[in-house]
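Narrative of activities, Objective 1.

The group set out to show that a structural description can be obtained from nothing but a protein's sequence at a throughput compatible with the screening campaign. Below is one input-output pair from the validation batch, recorded exactly as produced.
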Amino acid sequence: MECSPYYLSDLQVYFSGHDRELALYEALFQAMSAAFPEGQVKVQKSQISFYGRHLFAAASLPFRRKKGWPEHCLLVTFGLGRRLDHPRVAVAVEPYPNRWTHHVVVDRPEQIDGQLLEWLGEAWRFSQEK
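Output recorded for this entry:
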């Protein structure tokens, strides 16, 4: 996966004081790099964005927590052309007709599994077709 020359330093700034979340992100990044080697990643102020032809996924620290969310977690966000109705999806919104944004809370490395990567693969394909 293509990263900017400042990726590692930007990552340290983004996750400053959030070591557990950084470890979760590193596991996610490894899985994403293997699944989407031609992708690009960019650390931004509010999220870490993953691109193919267009943005297809993001990872972020949850700034607004819903009741019951773990204290230490990462929010994995991806877009699909359909609503994904699954217990792992914490929030799903339709900002545009037939474009659904899904948020999955990850608080353990084993949650970065085949199912999540399948959804991210669908998001990759959906973003490539825009």
